[in-house]
Specification:
CATH topology: Alpha-Beta Plaits
Radius of gyration: 15 Å
CATH class: Alpha Beta
Strand content: 25-35%
Number of strands: 4
Order of helices and strands: EHEHEHE
Number of helices: 3
Mean pLDDT: 94
Low-confidence stretches: none
Distance between the termini: 12 Å
Strand order of the largest sheet: 2-3-1-4
Structural class: alpha+beta
CATH architecture: 2-Layer Sandwich
Length: 121
């Protein structure tokens, strides 16, 4: 069964195109290392919650949009091997380097995690 990395982040609305350019440069690396699919999703129909919501999870301000991203891997072993290679500071791919491809958002407010699917249709 596949393995999913999920991400939620707040991106300044004025940086939408910068975010897309950042993703187009960085996301192919995941595919090169074995990802099955990568999705970058810009906020469209994201309601405000009464107890919690996506906005609160990433402390999004009124001038920021919520972005939901996922990377689907064939399995956890492929994901773990890919992440180990991509995050090796001695061999950092310039497409991931903050100097050549800076994140157009506050990475400290990004939430992320790895997930094992339990139901798949």
């Amino acid at each position: 069964m596949s393995y999913i990395d999920g991400f939620v982040l707040a991106v300044p609305k004025t940086n939408k195109q910068k975010f897309i350019e950042h993703a187009k440069l960085a996301d192919p690396i995941f595919m090169e290392y074995g990802a099955i699919r990568v999705l970058e999703c810009w906020q469209d129909d994201v309601p405000k919650g009464t107890v919690t919501d996506f906005y609160g999870a990433v402390k999004a301000t009124e001038d920021e949009a919520v972005v939901f991203s996922l990377i689907e891997w064939p399995d956890k072993a492929t994901r773990d091997a890919a992440m180990a290679k991509m995050m090796d500071p001695k061999n950092i791919d310039p497409r991931l380097s903050p100097e050549t491809n800076p994140m157009p958002f506050d990475g400290k407010r990004m939430i992320f995690g790895g997930f094992m699917p339990v139901v798949e249709l």
